[in-house]
Amino acid sequence: MPPRKTSPSEEGPKPRRRRTTAGSKEQTRPESRRTTKPAKEEPEAQPQPRQGSQRREQPFLELVDETMRDAIRVRDPQIAPEEAAAALHRLFEWQLPSPEHGAALVKDIGPARAQAIVDVALRDEPTPATVALAADLALAEGDPDTAVDRVLQARDLVDHPYLRLRLARSREQQGRVVEAVEELRDALQRDPGVEEAQVLRGELLARLASWQAREPFDCPCGSGQAYRACCQATATQLLAEFRDGAPLQALRAAVVVFVERTPELHDFMENALREWAAELELDLDAGDDDSQGLFQLSAERAWTTAVDGGERTILTDFSADKEASPEQAKMAAEWGRWKAWGLWQIDELGEPGVLLTEYVTGTRVYAHMAPEQRRGLRRWSVLLGCFGPVNGIWRPGWGLVEVDPAHARTLALRVVRFAEWVARQGDSRHQLVVDWAQHVCHELDERRWLPDRAERVPRGIVKTARNLVSVMLASLVGEARGATQLAQGPEAADEPVPVLDDLTLRQAAGRQEYADRLEVVLRELEHHRASTGQKPAVGDLRRELGVP
Q: What is the rounded distance in angstroms from the CA atom of residue 74 to the CA atom of residue 90?
């Protein structure tokens, strides 16, 4: 699968910066608490911009301009390494670049210039960012041992999930896969939203699962010992932790009991279920699996819905309950914070987990799904529902509604158009959401939207989209349940396809401007054949067309 694009606008978690001089205290940038009141309007005066807004906007524009100039200084080979190192320090003074961005920077400016800049930066007071970029340079040059040393040096300054991700990649290059998975587990327990760590853990856990199915004799870590006597026990434990859904099941049971003994929350749940049943025309007493699954979906949404219009939810009340165990209170807080309502495209159904891409935003997670939840699922199906992390491991909620990829496109259009409408009700600060929504709508309308290859968006947009799916959930579920089976796609490479402007698959495969639309057609065709019990020979068709 082609690598996804990245956007400089993506924001990751920001570490606290520490100075390394002896006896110094940890330094953090304080947040401004000053508020500016609008200036009073004088009689018969010409309208003037509010001074508070002017003071806020002008420094921001200057900051953007200076950031762009610093980015040019780093990349311009005519700029001396000393000046470029100073610019690099300013660019990453208050945040740590992701490994993906660090590797892209090294590739962009070239190893020689990257080395010159890093050497100068490390001669002065090392910062986590400069040391992390030194690790990225070592990885790019195939030197994982030096990369490990650099990451450990950076972790003496600050412990951050991005550094654990770099260490995991370095360990993987060393062949120490089990240690890499341990680093990723620790990183994702701190921040389950680090997408690169999610995807890498999925790749490495799949490798451990293959070793579990067919045990290697020599341990791949290079210790010289047999695998059974070296890393096997830890690998088995890591796989067992990932597959263990018991903690989430216990949390659900505990929350149900908590709601039952809290009259206010019990009434809130009852009202939510009645409204859900009325909107979807469900019988509250129905006992069939489909109805029960939909009621479970409603209950799960109610757990994270504001009880009184503020920040309070069932899960926040449960987390604060004195009778809740500390472990379950922590899990409830984690689920409540990171819950992700969306349309989840199944990219890979592997072992021990499933690689998913959120259809609207392109966000990816690697999740464990129980065998009964995976039963009948097909690649490129889209799941409408909620996923969330428990101890850093993403798992699905109670109820999921499966949608075929063509209907998922229709649902996604509804969500994105609603996001654009909501953003337009705000001020200019929401223009980023408007621009993103217009782009995605255009790609969906043109039938060339591939979420797993889409440019990544900031976390703020991701959060907005997830909230809107939760708000629209009942209507989205109703539309998904009423969807009808679509007509079968093309049978052969030389059959004209209307959505490809009546080109054949073979003709479209030879024209770059049709590459994404062709991929959409092939995915829908693969899903349709699998869902109707036909032999999914799309792989043979791809080879015939020369499409990976």
A: 11
What integer is the mean pLDDT of 349-372?
A: 96
Q: Which residues contact 242 (CB under 8 A, 6 or more apart)?
A: 205, 352, 353, 368, 393
**Model confidence pLDDT, tens digit, residues 205-251:** 999 999 999 999 999 999 999 999 999 999 999 999 999 999 999 99
Please, what's the b/e burial string for 48-78 (b: 16 or more CB within 10 A of its CB; e: otherwise)?
eeeeeeeeeeeeeeeeeeeeeebeebbeeee
Q: By the 8 A CB rule, do 314 and 303 touch? A: yes
Length of the chain as a residue count: 548
- pLDDT bin (cut points 50, 70, 90) of residue 309 is confident
Is residue 346 within 8 A of residue 356, CB to CB? The reply is: yes
CATH class of the domain defined by 67-242: mainly alpha
For 88-139, give the DSSP string.
Answer: HHHHTSSSPPPHHHHHHHHHHH-HHHHHHHHHHHHHSS--HHHHHHHHHHHH
DSSP secondary structure letter of residue 424: H
Show me where the domains of the chain are located: 67-242, 248-402, 405-481, 496-545
SS3 of residue 491 by DSSP: coil
**What pTM, to 2 d.p., does this model score?**
0.84
List Cβ neighbours of 118 (8 Å cut-off, separation of 6 or more): 85, 130, 133, 134, 137
Residue 113's CB: how many other CB atoms inside 10 A? 18
Q: What is the DSSP string of 150-214?
A: HHHHHHTT---HHHHHHHHHHHHHHT-HHHHHHHHHHHHHH-TT-HHHHHHHHHHHHHHHHHHHS
Render pLDDT for 42-57 as a digit per residue (tens, 0 to 9): 344 444 433 444 434 4
